[in-house]
Amino acid sequence: MVDKEEFEKVILEVNDDLYGVTGERVWAKALGDDLYEIRNTPWHTCDVSWGDVVRAVPEKENQWPKVLEVVRRSGNRTVHIFFLKAATDTDKAEILGKLKTWKANYENADGKLYAVDVAADGDFDGLCQYLHEVEDAGMLDYRTGVSPPAV
């Protein structure tokens, strides 16, 4: 019999001006001692990735734990892709299908926004070069970081 892993939500503070988001709930596996392993690719930050181990504690009882710090990096990297109107469904399928070339997987938010996880042994620079070429063709925008709000 295989034990089923159980996940819970933790809160990431983010500064995603593009979407007006300041917090995001992500799935994580509790490891004990306030440590959690992130188990999905965040939509609104590129600073935390699948597999990273974070320290998180709830601010109050009966609240989701809030991430305080990244304790150990998994080596995975997060990229966000935004498809533009010029990209047809066929274009999207072709582009997303090529992600595995660089050992990358994706999660679809809404048909336009995709969170991409590049494996630790994947080719992050190669993927970014490809995305830059597709961006120049006018089909998408992408980001490898989320800028903090202007002060």
Net shape: elongated
Q: What is the number of helical segments per DSSP (H or I, 4+ residues)? A: 2
Mean pLDDT: 91
Helical content stands at: 10-25%
Query: At the first level of CATH, what is the class of the largest domain?
Result: Alpha Beta
How far is the first residue's CA from the last residue's CA? Answer: 54 Å
CATH architecture of the largest domain: 2-Layer Sandwich
In terms of DSSP E residues, the strand content is 35-45%
Largest β sheet strand count, sense and barrel closure: 5 strands, antiparallel
Name the poorly predicted regions.
none
Give the topology, please:
Blueprint: E1 8-16, E2 21-32, E3 35-38, E4 53-57, E5 66-72, E6 77-83, H1 89-98, E7 104-108, E8 113-118, H2 124-136, E9 140-143
Antiparallel strand pairs: 1-2, 2-3, 3-4, 4-5, 6-8, 6-9, 7-8
Model description:
- By secondary structure, the protein is an alpha+beta fold.
- The chain folds into two domains: 65 residues, no CATH class; 67 residues, Alpha-Beta Plaits (2-Layer Sandwich).
- It is 15% helix and 39% strand.
- It contains two helices and nine strands.
- The chain has a five-stranded antiparallel sheet, with no helix packed on it. A four-stranded antiparallel sheet has the order 7-8-6-9, covered by helices on one side.
- The longest helix has 13 residues.
- The chain is elongated.
